[in-house]
Specification:
This protein is of the alpha/beta class. It has six domains: about 180 residues, 2-Layer Sandwich (Alpha-Beta Plaits), CATH 3.30.70.1230; about 140 residues, P-loop containing nucleotide triphosphate hydrolases (Rossmann fold, 3-Layer(aba) Sandwich); about 60 residues, no CATH class; about 80 residues, Arc Repressor Mutant, subunit A, CATH 1.10.10; about 160 residues, no CATH class; about 140 residues. The protein is built from 43 helices and 16 strands. It has a seven-stranded mixed β-sheet with strand order 2-3-1-4-7-9-8. Strands 11-12-13-10-14 form a five-stranded parallel β-sheet, with helices on both faces. A hairpin with a 2-residue loop joins β2 and β3. α18 crosses α20. The protein is elongated. It comes from Actinoplanes utahensis.
Length: about 950
């Protein structure tokens, strides 16, 4: 062995070299190869001597050399490549291309050799090089100091310093070396006189991640990808929190693929739900690390990851929350360049944690995902234009798991039928034969979360499930006065969503699961009774002001409460609580009529009416019925949506006993103003209850014979009560839909009005007054109609169920139109339109828009009139009565004649496409007739 025989010890840099393609070169040169090989050896040995390298082994065309200095080793490689390039070889195609590899590590010689894994690592680095290329490990790159004086003295040290001054190290990335489990960063030595461009190293590139390949494309969530990536770039620990099946894992995988370039150390994902040997072992396996004897795996992990710029994904943390939090804390504390993204149904509760709640899929994304998955489930046989598919997607609440299950269910049911079944999403989407995995069904998924709840939180979830929509904190505390901690647990575990207000919302899927648990515990009847009590209290709050004045019916104000009232009404109907059910039905009637839900209302009432015989038997033979002219507003039977004479009475003893509505005006146990808990069926039905039951059903039906039967029952009950105002009310309801004989209908209206006047209850006859005014308008008795309506103004203002519609003003506007008085017509119609719009009566507002269209036509603006007619017709409110329909049609025919078919049709279509809100704004923007053509009255005011 040439050179010194004393081997370096401690931190040693090992060099391996060999000739690339030596076999081919030997066969090509024959006997001449011996001279080439000898020259190659002489050049390299001279370099080793100049840089104090110790030659350990020579075998064929390869060398194994040890250096005490990494600087000297790198300089030797550079100088060797330069001398080989400069040598005068016998043939230009016979130049030996030598590959060289370096690695630095601690080694102690035993005799004249080293027994160290560092030697094998150096050999693997060399094997990865190409001919003419010098590669080194990360350890050698860190040990090289190219800018300072040589650490060794003498000629060799000076030569190394001079050479290293021109050297750069190019990071080629992480690679896997054969026989080693961990990754090795490999650097190429760059210097003048050396080749620069080579193929990728000749070894397997280290995996940069273990993100699994997905079976289906990632759909949507572009905004979420951007937002989450931005959070990860600024925070070391980001926890993605959301309910099961919301797509947390899929989203973090997708965002991780976008972030690979930012993490040279790779991105590694482990799942706490499947880490059977522990989280540290799962992460070590992903990184290619093996256990070290007598050393905890977490220590091996932190050592290997200490300086690596890497991202760790901890999935399903709620499967082992304490262990996951402990691992995250240890990694973040020991590995300063390591970031973590965790996913789970609850936060980890670590210092510095950034919690990001994954939102449901946006409607467009939900539809795109359903379309993609349904096409796969149906083998591509999918009608993309099917509007029912979009309606189905909207019912799935943006839940990726529900969408996946729905796509599979479309093999069995069309989208329309499946959407109708989603009132019970578990029954509609779950498969009884599904596996027991948490994502195999909605039930399994929700059971995973439910099992982790404490008793108080689980009980609160069951009680809140009977509410149809979001609830306020006061309502939650009414369900459980000490509910704040349980509510926090439900929110943390993504079973309750906190929405602005704040209010607390439960998804339909969670609600369906919680209701099943409620039924299983046997608590459902009691909990639903309490919900019914709460609902009746909200009914009082909405319909009565703080000063006990009954409010005008406003569908706008009712809108947030309608789902709760309908839920409570279904329970009242099923449980036979007729008084409570009738109160709710009376309040809901205008909503049903306005939103074309009369059939649903009739079905609920039909269920409720099955219990009427029992209720009638319990009722006193002659219930004392207060006259609405003398009753307080809070108990007036004419106050739609409030008592209608069917009040729950207070308990037989205690404060307020015997006083109507005492149960619902007190303060609950929590001091929040919510209702005390009252028993069902606190009082029997009164005559007003029975009359209301018949009148509501009569107004909801379009069948004339059925309507007449209900009205006959109502009249018989009113006559038995002996109360004149109640009889007037029923007979007034009879004439609100005049039949085919206008003269007979007019006679009936006058009789009802006269009866009301005789008994001093004119307010009860207002529907008859309005019907009579319409009949007079139809036969052009305009003066009498105007006088009748003028006298009815104060009556309408006193009736909460009517004053929001401003029907008197509406009819006065119609009378003014027929008289040609555009100023009066404009004033009355604008008042009616504003009031109807404010109170949510869209159909009646459309009538007012159509009337303003006539005002525009009569005022010389046919183009605006045609647009307004189109918008009113699109709202389906302008042809609700036969008389007005003929009126609109006549004026539209005149407009068509004036504008021409093409112009009228284009303007009409424009109005239909504008949307009702814009049409209303356009109608209200019509200029007052007194402002047109410089009217004298306004000109004088201006002066």
């Amino acid at each position: 062995m040439p050179g010194r025989i004393e081997l370096p010890s401690g931190l040693v840099t090992f060099m391996f070299t060999d000739i690339e393609g030596s076999t081919r070169l030997a066969r090509m040169l024959g006997e001449a190869y011996r001279r080439v090989l000898g020259a190659h050896r002489a050049v390299l040995r001279a370099v080793f001597t100049d840089f104090d390298g110790v030659e350990l082994l020579t075998e064929g065309d390869s060398f194994f050399v040890a250096f005490s200095s990494a600087d000297a080793a790198v300089a030797a490689c550079v100088e060797a490549q330069r001398r080989l390039s400069a040598y005068d070889w016998p043939r230009s195609d016979a130049v030996p291309r030598v590959r060289m590899g370096l690695h630095t590590g601690r080694a102690i010689p035993v005799g004249q050799e080293y027994a160290s894994a560092e030697v094998h690592r150096a050999a693997r680095v060399s094997a990865a090089a190409h001919g003419g290329q010098v590669l080194c490990s990360e350890a050698t790159a860190l040990a090289v100091t190219a800018t300072h004086a040589a650490v060794a003295g003498g000629r060799a040290g000076a030569a190394a310093a001079a050479t290293l001054a021109t050297v750069d190290l190019l990071d080629l990335g992480a690679y896997r070396l054969r026989g080693f489990d961990d990754d090795e960063r490999i650097f190429q030595v760059m210097a003048p006189g050396l080749e620069r461009d080579f193929p990728r190293p000749r070894t397997a590139q280290a995996p940069r991640h273990n993100i699994p390949a997905e079976h289906s494309p990632f759909v949507g969530r572009r905004a979420e990808l951007t937002e989450l990536a931005e959070l990860i770039s600024h925070h070391r620990l980001v926890t993605v929190v959301g309910p099961g099946g919301s797509g947390k894992t899929r989203l973090t995988h997708a965002v991780s693929e976008q972030l690979l370039a930012a993490y040279p150390g790779g991105i590694w994902t482990i799942d706490a739900a499947t880490a059977s040997q522990g989280l540290p072992v799962a992460l070590a396996t992903a990184l290619g690390l093996r256990p070290e004897p007598g050393r905890p795996m977490i220590d091996t992990l932190t050592e290997q990851c200490a300086e690596r710029r890497m991202l760790v994904l901890l999935q399903t943390c709620d499967a082992a929350p304490a262990l996951t939090a402990a691992l995250a804390h240890r990694l973040l504390s020991r590995c300063r360049r390591l970031d973590i993204v965790a996913t789970g149904r609850a936060p980890l509760a670590l210092a510095g944690e950034t919690v990001w709640r994954i939102p449901p899929l946006a409607p467009a994304d939900a539809f795109a995902l359903l379309r993609d998955r349904a096409a796969a489930a149906l083998g591509g046989r999918l009608d993309d234009g099917d509007p029912q598919l979009a309606r189905l997607a909207a019912r799935l609440e943006g839940s990726p798991l529900a969408i996946q299950l729905a796509a599979a269910r479309l093999r069995l049911l069309p989208a329309e039928q499946l959407a109708r079944r989603l009132d019970d999403p578990l029954g509609a989407l779950d498969n009884d034969a599904a596996g027991d995995g948490r994502h195999a069904s909605l039930t399994n998924n929700l059971a995973w979360s439910y099992r982790t709840l404490g008793n108080r939180a689980a009980g609160l979830l069951r009680r809140l499930a009977v509410f149809a929509g979001p609830v306020e904190l006061a309502t939650v505390e009414w369900c459980d006065p000490e509910a704040l901690g349980a509510l926090s647990e439900l929110a943390d575990k993504s079973l309750i969503e906190v929405v602005p207000g704040p209010r607390y919302r439960m998804s339909d899927q969670v609600r369906a699961y919680a209701l099943r648990q409620l039924a299983a515990t046997g608590e459902e009847p009691a909990v639903r009774d309490l919900h019914l009590t709460w609902t009746l209290h909200t009914l009082d709050r909405v319909t009565v002001d703080t000063d006990d004045q009954v409010r005008a019916i406003s569908l706008t104000e009712l809108c947030p409460y309608v789902p709760e009232w309908q839920t409570a009404l279904r329970w009242a109907a099923a449980a036979g609580n007729v008084p409570a059910g009738l109160r709710l039905a009376t309040a809901l009637e205008p909503w049903w009529l306005e939103h074309n839900e009369a059939r649903a209302g009739r079905d609920l009432l039909a269920t409720l009416y099955r219990h009427l015989p029992t209720a009638e038997a319990a009722a006193p033979p002659r219930a004392a019925v207060p006259d609405p002219g003398t009753a307080s507003p809070a108990t007036s039977p004419c106050a739609a949506g409030s008592r209608s004479g069917a009040d729950f009475a207070a308990p037989a003893s205690g404060p307020g006993a015997g006083s109507p509505s005492t149960v619902f005006t007190g303060v609950g146990a929590t001091g929040t103003g919510l209702p005390a808990r009252a028993p069902r069926n606190a009082v029997p039905l009164s005559a007003v209850d029975l009359v209301d039951a018949c009148l509501v059903q009569a107004r909801l039906t379009d069948d004339r014979a059925e309507r007449d039967r209900f009205l006959a029952h109502a009249e018989a009950e009113a006559e038995r009560s002996g109360e004149p105002w109640l009889l007037v009310r029923v007979r007034s309801a009879r004439v609100t839909r005049p039949g085919d004989d206008p003269a007979a209908a007019e006679h009936d209206c006058r009789e009802v009005i006269a009866l009301a006047d005789r008994h001093g209850v004119p307010h009860a006859a207002l529907p008859a007054v309005l019907t009579l005014a319409e009949l007079l308008w139809r036969r052009e008795a305009l003066t009498e109609a105007a006088d009748l309506l003028g006298a009815a103004r104060h009556v309408e203002a006193a009736r909460p169920e009517d004053r929001g519609r401003r029907t008197v003003d509406w009819l006065l506007g119609m009378v003014a139109l027929c008289r040609g008085d555009l100023v009066a017509a404009h004033d009355h119609l604008v008042v009616a339109l504003r009031s109807r719009l404010r109170h949510g009566f869209r159909g009646a507002a459309a009538d007012a828009v159509a009337a303003i269209a006539v005002r525009c036509a009569l005022g010389g603006d046919p183009a605006t009139a045609a647009v307004l007619f189109g918008g009113a017709e699109a709202a389906q409110g302008a042809r609700r009565t036969e008389s007005f329909g003929a009126f609109w049609s006549a004026h539209q025919a005149s407009l068509r004649t004036a504008l021409g078919d093409a112009t009228f049709d284009a303007a009409y279509a424009d109005g239909a496409g504008l949307g009702f809100d814009r049409i209303v704004a356009m109608a209200l923007a019509v200029e007052h007739p007194d402002l047109e053509d410089g009217a004298a009255r306004f000109a004088q005011m201006a002066r």
